[in-house]
Write a structure and sequence with these properties.
9 strands, five-stranded mixed sheet, 150 residues, Immunoglobulin-like, elongated, four-stranded mixed sheet, mainly beta
Length: 150
């Protein structure tokens, strides 16, 4: 959307500019025609503003909902309603280090969290992000997936 607004501004300013060699009789000989101000837009890095916060609840040995659809810039908030679980990104048993509870560090061996814990992660890219509980993925298929759309 921002791209379209910028393009529209450039086109509007371009249409206001006078030709370099004008034959307009109203401009005195030797004078230059006025031109539209130049549009110098600074480069602005895309900032991820807080979007919607979606909750996934950890109950017994399950993530509810198991699949959560969100948009770029949204945040997923995992809430523990049961003890001794992790949120670890990657395919079951294979941490990829993209995100993990409780603090996004040492995802392959991060500690389990207990009932009442909360972990949040904001998603900045379109894609599908699988995750699992390191302690319960094998026997209980405790896995989930975040699907991020534009």
């Amino acid at each position: 959307m921002l791209f379209l607004v910028g393009l529209l501004l450039v086109l509007m300013l371009w249409s206001l500019q006078a030709p370099a060699a004008s034959t307009d009789a109203r401009i005195p000989q030797g004078a230059t025609a006025p031109t539209a101000p130049s549009l110098h837009l600074p480069f602005v890095a895309r900032q991820f503003t807080p979007g919607t916060v979606y909750t996934v609840t950890i109950v017994n040995v399950d993530f509810i909902p198991r699949i959560r659809n969100i948009r770029v810039g949204d945040t997923v908030r995992w809430e523990w309603a049961a003890d001794f679980h992790t949120v670890t990104s990657g395919l079951p048993g294979v941490p990829d280090g993209l995100f993990c509870s409780p603090s996004n560090t040492d995802c392959a061996s991060s500690p389990a969290s207990l009932k009442g814990a909360v972990y949040e992660h904001q998603f900045h890219q379109v894609g599908t992000f699988p995750y699992f509980c390191r302690f319960h993925f094998a026997f209980f298929n405790m896995t989930g997936q975040i699907v991020v759309g534009p």
